[in-house]
Write a structure and sequence with these properties.
The complex is a heterodimer of chains A (309) and B (437). Chain A is an alpha/beta fold and 309 residues long. Helix content of chain A is 34%, strand content 28%. Chain A has helices spanning 40-47, 70-73, 91-101, 106-120, 135-144, 165-180, 192-198, 216-221, 238-245, 270-280, 295-303, and strands at 2-10, 15-24, 29-33, 55-60, 63-64, 76-79, 153-157, 184-189, 201-206, 209-214, 226-233, 250-256, 259-265, 285-291. In chain A, the strands form three sheets. Chain A has a six-stranded mixed beta sheet, with helices on both faces. Chain A has a four-stranded antiparallel beta sheet with strand order 2-1-4-5, with helices on one face. The two termini of chain A are 33 Å apart. Chain B is of the alpha/beta class. In chain B, 69% of the residues lie in helices and 7% in strands. Chain B contains 19 helices and five strands. In chain B, α1 (2-13) crosses α14. Chain B is elongated and about 105 Å long. Chain B starts with a helix and ends with a helix. The model of chain B is unreliable at 43-47 and 215-225 (pLDDT under 50). The chains are: A alpha/beta (309), B alpha/beta (437). The interface between A and B is medium-sized, with 28 and 19 residues.
């Protein structure tokens, strides 16, 4: 659907995007994961034709969107990170205004507003000024304004920043549901869990570069040759800690209260070795878990820093 | 475009801070200034500035001596060579110069100056406000005054002072000066006994005396021979302090509309509503034009509210409604041009420095130059500059309409406002053109 090739964006003092290749496939939810300042917003602004790249190509179904931005604009909905609404106007008035700007009118517009208000769950408060809404409500209207003209591609830039968990869940479910109806979605976030939950494919960005990409399974599989175990005990005996540390295959052991976190070689059969030790020392194991690697771990292993650094 | 305008209007009409500044503040200030400074200014202000007077001298001194002698002969004073020699001094008497000499006194010259004009030029300059007053010296002023002084017959005559209604107080000073001069001459006539003594020395005293006595007794009964007639220019109405400040403050706060709309434009860029509009293929020019039109509509609304408020509360008439509307449209046009330019700069620079500076500095400078705080009639150079400012031109135009002038007289104001629009609009094109807003 959309391809970026060698895209670079420089400003006077910095290079925000340092030559990236990317592909957005029709019908997918594509995640763009990275810390603040990674270049995610610049990348999606280039895709949305809000400004041209300094260098590189962007094509939409084979057409050069840098030369012909109108080609992509009509099928594009954008949900900026900021609340791109008029605070003095109500949700209804905002939707009506943006709908008209996109060429909708009359009954079609009214019907569409009604539908969008239902999707974002804002029917009851639609007539109050936006400035009186909670953060979550504003975010929902922010999304609604991008849906009025039935875009084929929806670009969402950190749409859940600073909102309560309930509104966040609502937005995530809305995104899923829109995608099910056929909408292609580009979702940027620095919340690893959101990207992991929503996205079919993920690009991880840092410092203007794409450092990894693929499905979440591919990304996780690529990053580790260790297993991590988390054991919760009723009581932690020094003798137990010493014996586990001495067990073959255990690379490191972290003790936090009654919780032990063990890093050990992949497929080392550690469970069979630890259970007898605990039984011999009469230490009761309350729970035992194998920690699967997360995208956070992927990011950590690629950059040496966390997403929130 | 209509949707953009409606949206912009809704934004400003729901912005309490904006409404407080563009509607409530001017109403409060025009009320306070009208009742305090305005009252002082129009009733008894010591501040009059530099007063310009036109003198129209219709006095005819040609063959003055011959005409005097001829008249003397006609009333029984014989014309002989000795009498003629005695009367030749009459040629040296110049009563008009006597009046002009008063205006040459240093203390008066410091705030008042005069020029000699013909009647037509003087009236034109009075109407355009270039002159504060015109003094008409009547025909045969010297001749008639001399006859009044030297014969028992008095010729009633008037020095006419016509005052521009915008210059009531300074006009009063001119009236006092001319009145003082005519009083001096009148007093001299009242003392014409001494002239009669001269007549007696010339050998005409006996026949003259009885008639002069009668004339003198009449003069002493309080009759004034020389008078001063004071008129206003044509039928134009005077401007009072309330009217002045209703217009002056109103036009100052019209300028604040510009800053608000420019900030709205920047808000749109910062909160990315601008991005949504760009993605809907709306051009930056269309967005700016909508801001300009919206600001113009708000200005029309402001002027309507100011005029209704001042009419109801202060009983002020703004003059011919059609002319008020036409001038208001031009004020709205100029404001729209400035809004477009400042908004374009705000969006181009992505900050509000220029609009903040406009509100904090430029509006104040324009207000001072345009006469929003005090009238500038006392500082002619500043006044001329002030009329080139949008608010100054608007103030001048509205005051003229209040006085009863027509479109012809407010034409210069309309031209200035139109030029402001064109200049700002073209400049905004340059700003937008360099990379787009």
């Amino acid at each position: 659907m959309i391809r970026l090739k060698g895209v670079r964006k420089s400003y006077k003092k910095a290079e925000a995007v340092k030559g990236i290749d990317m592909e957005i496939k029709e019908g997918e939810i594509l995640g763009l994961l990275g810390p603040n300042g990674a270049g995610k917003s610049t990348t999606i602004s280039i895709i949305a034709t809000l400004f041209p790249p300094t260098e590189g190509e962007v094509t939409f179904e084979g057409q050069d969107v840098i030369k012909n931005p109108q080609a992509i604009r009509r099928i594009l909905g954008i949900v900026p990170q900021e609340i791109a609404l008029y605070p003095e106007l109500s949700a209804y008035e905002n939707l009506k205004f943006f709908g008209k700007v996109y060429g909708l009118k009359g009954k079609k517009l009214e019907h569409k507003i009604e539908e969008v208000l239902r999707i974002i769950g804002m029917k009851e408060k639609a007539k109050s000024p936006v400035k009186t809404y909670s953060g979550g409500m504003k975010r929902r209207v922010n999304i609604g304004c991008a849906l009025l003209h039935d875009p084929k591609l929806l670009i969402m830039d950190e749409p859940t920043v600073g909102i309560d968990p309930q509104s966040r869940n609502y937005i995530l479910e809305t995104v899923k549901s829109l995608n099910k109806e056929g909408m292609t979605i580009v979702y940027t976030s620095h919340y690893m869990e959101e990207v992991e939950y929503l996205c079919d494919r993920i690009y991880i960005m840092d410092d203007g570069l794409i450092i990894a990409n693929g499905t979440k399974e591919e990304l996780k599989a690529s990053m580790t040759d260790e297993d991590t175990f988390i054991i919760n005990l009723e009581t932690v005996e020094d003798e137990l800690v010493e014996q586990i540390k001495a067990t073959r295959g255990v690379n490191s052991l972290l003790v936090e209260g009654q919780t032990l976190t063990l890093n050990c070689e992949k497929n080392s059969g550690l469970l069979q070795k630890i259970l007898p030790i605990a039984q011999n020392l009469d230490c009761k194991i309350l729970s035992f878990a194998v920690k699967t690697p997360t995208l956070e771990d992927v990011f950590l292993s690629k950059t040496g820093k966390t997403l929130r650094d | 475009m209509l949707d953009l305008i409606v949206k912009d209007l809704k934004r400003v009409l729901r912005d309490k801070k904006a409404l407080a500044i563009i509607l409530v503040m001017p109403i409060i200030l025009m009320t306070i200034l009208g009742f305090t400074v305005g009252k002082f200014m129009m009733d008894s202000s010591a501040w009059i500035g530099h007063v310009k007077i036109g003198i129209v001298n219709l006095d005819n001194r040609e063959d003055l001596l011959d005409r005097v002698i001829e008249t003397f002969s006609a009333i029984g004073i014989e014309d002989n060579s000795s009498n003629r020699n005695g009367l030749e001094e009459i040629n040296d008497i110049d009563l008009v110069k006597g009046l002009l000499d008063i205006f040459e006194v240093d203390e008066i010259k410091s705030f008042m100056s005069y020029e000699i004009f013909n009647e037509q030029d003087a009236m034109e300059k009075l109407e355009t406000g270039e002159l504060n007053s015109v003094v008409f010296i009547p025909k045969d002023f010297t001749y008639n005054t001399l006859l009044s002084l030297a014969t028992p017959f008095t010729q009633r005559q008037e020095i006419e002072v016509i005052v521009n209604k915008n210059s009531q107080f300074s006009g009063r000073i001119v009236e006092e000066i001319v009145g003082g001069y005519t009083n001096v001459i009148s007093t001299s006539i009242n003392g014409k006994n001494s002239i009669l003594e001269v007549g007696a020395e010339l050998g005409v005293g006996d026949s003259l005396y009885s008639e002069v006595q009668d004339a003198v007794s009449k003069l002493h009964a309080g009759n004034s021979i020389l008078g001063i007639k004071i008129e206003d220019v044509a039928t134009m109405r005077a401007i009072n302090g309330m009217q002045y400040y209703a217009v002056a403050q109103g036009m100052m706060f019209v300028l604040y509309v510009i800053g608000f709309f420019a900030k709205y434009a920047l808000d749109e860029k910062h909160n990315h509503t601008h991005d949504r509009l760009i993605l809907s293929n709306l051009s930056a020019n269309k967005m700016l034009l909508s801001l300009g039109i919206s600001s113009g509509i708000i200005v029309l609304l402001q002027i309507l509210i100011f005029s209704i408020y001042s009419s109801l509360v202060f009983k002020i008439s703004w003059g011919n409604p059609a002319n008020v509307f036409i001038l208001s449209v031009f004020v709205a046009l100029a404001t729209a041009g400035m809004t477009i330019l400042i908004s374009a700069i705000n969006m181009r620079t992505s900050n509000a420095k220029i609009s903040n500076m406009f509100d904090a500095v430029v509006v104040i400078i324009l207000s001072v130059l345009g006469g929003s705080f005090v009238p500038l009639s006392g500082a002619p150079t500043l006044e001329r500059i002030g009329r080139l400012t949008p608010n100054g031109a608007a103030i001048n135009g509205f005051l003229k309409i209040m006085q009863g002038y027509g479109l012809k007289e407010i034409f210069p104001a309309l031209i200035v406002l139109c030029l402001v629009f064109i200049t700002c609009f073209m400049s905004s094109k340059i700003v937008v053109g360099r990379g787009g807003a």
